[in-house]
Amino acid sequence: MNRIIREAKPTDITDIMQVMEAAKKIMRSSGNMHQWGDGYPSETVIFSDMVKHGGYVIEDAGRIIGYFAFLLSPEPTYSKLYNGKWLDDVQSYHVIHRIASYPDVHGIFSDVMDFCFSHDANIRIDTHKDNRIMQHNIEKHGFSYCGIIYLANGDERMAYQKLNNDSVLHQKSFQELTVDELYELLRVRSEVFVVEQDCVYQDLDSDDQKSIHLWLTIADKVVALARVCPAGTHMQEISIGRVITTERGKGYGKQIMLYAIEAAKMHFHATHIDIEAQEYAKGFYESVGFKQSSEIFMLDGIPHIKMTIRL
């Protein structure tokens, strides 16, 4: 299995609608006779997801096998909750809609959850009371039932929320950093790049002032960090660098890279991103979509390669 999740494109619409029809058949065969009626979700709805950069397809060996929407709050239909309350109704959140796949494909819901929680720790989702399959998957993955919401057409839905408190994302420009935050980021960078790797190099390169800085903490301890540099600073193109995980083997490196990719799109409107990767880490960066785009070269005495991701 070699599944890839990527943003949906207008050229995917035919394949996406075929997935939607297959998902409807699954619903009907399981006794869910009322959800997704009257031509929903239509092509217009899917195109709306794409415009918001919230439509995603799941590919396996080049074949689209699933679709879902992952959209940033606020979700209008969640403004009023009945017979319950949200776990958290203060912080921003993402909402997952329109999960669909073919009946012979397994593990799609888990793939979607892994992807979404690598981008946000606060997620809401809803489903029809007759959709037993979706209810089972939602509860299996740790969501809490919160109450009832009503769609714009008056249809009732069961609403759920999950707060993943494993790690906390921090994202700031250089000017927004406190003195203590800046000190800690520079301390970790020095500890890893200079001391651990026994490499004497100039970490303070004057690119920090123009960059977006991201880091993950657990109990106020930094477990991963990265920075996103605009074009014309560290590299000719928009780039991600200073990628570090202090708690290895727990997925924090992949998590911070996915956050950094999203930050590059949000702050600098990136259509592609470059990195200078240590050669041994090639597989790691390939796992989040980067591809080698240069021969091996030496940088500060360490073999590196240039890698690029096109969004």
In short:
The chain is α+β, with helices and mostly antiparallel strands. It contains seven helices and 15 strands.
Largest sheet, if any? 7 strands, mixed
N-to-C series of helices and strands: EHHEEEHEHEEEHEEEHEHEEE
Q: Which spans of ≥5 residues are poorly predicted at pLDDT below 50?
A: none
User: What kind of assembly state do the chains in view correspond to?
Assistant: single chain
Strand order, main sheet: write it out.
Answer: 1-2-3-4-5-7-6
Helix content: 25-40%
Number of strands: 15
- The whole-number mean of residue pLDDT values reads 93
Individual helix count: 7
| Radius of gyration, taken over Cα atoms and rounded to an integer in Å | 21 Å
Helix vs. strand class: alpha+beta
Report strand %.
25-35%
Tell me the span between the first and last alpha carbons: 23 Å
